[in-house]
Amino acid sequence: MADARAWGESLAQDLQDYIHKRIPWSEVDKGALLHGEPGTGKTIFATALAATCKVPLVATSYAEWQRSKDGHLGDVLAAMADDFKLAKKHAPCILFIDEIEAVSSRATGGSNHRWYTNIITALNEQLHGIFSREGVVVIAATNYPDRIDPALLRPGRLDTRIAIPMPTAQDLRGIVRFHLRKDLADADLGGLAVALAGSTGAHVERIIRVARRRARKLGRELLLDDLFAALGEKLDDLPREYLERIAIHEAGHAAAAIVLKVSRNVSVSLFHLGEGSAATYFDPQIEAVTRKVVERRIAVALAGRAAEQVLLGDVTAGAGGSDTSDLAMANTLAFWTVARWGLGEVDQLKWLAGGPEQIVSTHPELAAEAYKMLDVANKRALALIRRRMTEVRAIAGALMKRRALAHEDIAALLARSQTRRKEPAVRRPHRRRA
User: Fold this and answer.
1) 167-210 confidence digits (pLDDT tens)
2) This prediction's pTM
3) Quick one: how far is CA 48 from the chain centroid?
4) Which residues are catalytic?
5) Closest by alpha carbon to 184, among 228, 212, 222, 229?
6) Does the pLDDT of residue 112 top 80, yes or no?
7) Which of 156-160, 296-300, 346-350 is least confident?
8) Which residues, listed in sequence order, are joined to residue 295 by a DSSP beta bridge?
9) What is the largest CA-CA distance in the chain?
10) DSSP-derived pairing of the beta strands 160-163 and 57-61
11) Which of 164, 195, 193, 194 is closest to 176 using CA atoms?
């Protein structure tokens, strides 16, 4: 939560300066909207923020107001006013309003438009109206920022928007370690963090709870295998030969992404949250899109198939199929290069909206160049895999053993194999027989 943390630390300093009368209330951020996917830690952030700011936290929600007494409009508005009064009583403090999207925007209120207009008007008055709230910082949280009425986001209200992003692999490793406490103190959590890609902090907490229950039922200490089992892993049900092919395919992608310098953050997993879908993840480097950059990315997309061909002697349909497959990605990049990005070998400035199949029928000369680009990239991928066979096998072997590999694991295997290759051979002295 880098951005959220930076803002929170600045707010903590401002509040302390306000408390000690070094700055007026007008210099303090008075409200913010936290937004992100469910389970990313918005509520936890609000709690940690209050602790960091050393001020009380008053927590509420629209659902709390709605449950007040008989739930009539007057009851809801009175409950809202009571929470703001409570916050003012404890000022300086943070008033946290969870799931504020429940206060539907007037643009989408439908038959309840009049109801929500009254709610929003009253909330606006509390935030920036006739009622003073000096010393009260209002933090609202939502999973759906597009549903918030614009009036609530104006200056002086919830005018600072803070995204709470999905955790990265490194974040997930830290979250796992936090929830494990003293368990598995020496375990390498890198592979598990990769397998958890796309998970939230709340999901990690549940996975560890399930894993601990499994270990208790088996009457032993928690093992790393329990955590993978809690993910819903079904790898043991698959034939080893099938898994080895998948591992080699993904190892090809991973090795190519690092060797061709497409990314500095590559990871690979044999499965993803029990879905049985292996995947290689990498964050593309931030760089200008030139033809050479695209050529490298196409080669990486084709490197999985190339690894199968070089190391196993044949290929499967695993590189193709859906619109998100390796072949689909490679074809899209090649056709966009010549038909949308103006990066063809010939000075071609056409921009075509159609997909590859339409370009093939209407502009065969562009299609021919795109297919030539794919052919060159495939040969490059094959040459890379042949040159790095030892490394790809090492990555695939580690992947079979550990299920998932983080960037540093893959980079270490690449470097180790290269080091061994450079070591001079030891010559044994030739002894003549007497």
Assistant:
1) 888 888 899 999 999 999 988 888 888 888 778 888 899 999 99
2) 0.66
3) 22
4) 250
5) 222
6) no
7) 346-350
8) none
9) 112
10) unpaired
11) 193
The 3-class SS string of the chain reads CHHHHHHHHHHHHHHHHHHCCCCCHHHCCCEEEEECCCCCCHHHHHHHHHHHHCCCEEEEEHHHHHCCCCCCHHHHHHHHHHHHHHHHHCCCEEEEEECHHHCCCCCCCHHHHHHHHHHHHHHHHHHHCCCCCCCEEEEEEECCHHHCCHHHHCCCCCCEEEECCCCCHHHHHHHHHHHHCCCCCCCCCHHHHHHCCCCCHHHHHHHHHHHHHHHHHCCCCCCHHHHHHHCCCCHHHCCHHHHHHHHHHHHHHHHHHHHCCCEEEEEEECCCCCCCCCEEEEEECCCCCCHHHHHHHHHHHHHHHHHHHHHHCCCCHHHCCCCCCHHHHHHHHHHHHHHCCCCCCCCCCCCCCCCHHHHHHHCHHHHHHHHHHHHHHHHHHHHHHHHCHHHHHHHHHHHHHHCEECHHHHHHHHHHHHHHHHCCCCCCCCCCCC
Structure tokens at 184: 């598995």
Average pLDDT over residues 251-260: 95
How far apart CA 91 and CA 137 sit, in angstroms, is 9
User: How much of the chain exceeds pLDDT 90, in percent?
Assistant: 50
Domains of the chain: 2-163 (3.40.50.300), 169-231 (1.10.8.60), 236-419 (1.20.58.760)
Q: From CA 254, how far away is CA 300, in angstroms rounded?
A: 8
Confidence bin at 273 (pLDDT 50/70/90) = low
Closest-CA residue to 275 (of 195, 209, 213): 195
Q: Residue 33: pLDDT band by 50, 70, 90 thresholds? A: very high
pLDDT given for residue 46 in this prediction: 93
Q: Two tokens at 79?
A: 């409950």
Residue with tokens 């943070």: 94
